[in-house]
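Re: your question about PadR family transcriptional regulator

S., sorry for the slow reply, the queue was backed up all week. Below is exactly what I fed in.
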Amino acid sequence: MPGRRPCGPRPAYGYEITAWLRDQGFSDIAEGTIYALLVRIEKHGLVEVRKVPSEKGPPRKVYSLNAQGQRHLEEIWRAWSFLAERLEQLREGGK
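Result:
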């Protein structure tokens, strides 16, 4: 959708996260995959969840990273950066 704000660290609900990821190039991602991941990260205590009224159907669960989730995300990005750098070195012939 044009004009949609990025999900980034702001609170968002499952469908909104799925749509944002599709906009970012993850066109084959299934909505069910996102909901399954949200359940897992909620069980691990990485997000705060609040229910907000919906015009259609039951209340929506809105997810936002808590402090523990933010730290975990930063660890993931550090690990990813390390891996990406090493893979680039391998691609360039081990320089």
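The chain has one domain: 12-91. The two ends are 43 Å apart (CA to CA).

Happy to talk it through on Thursday.
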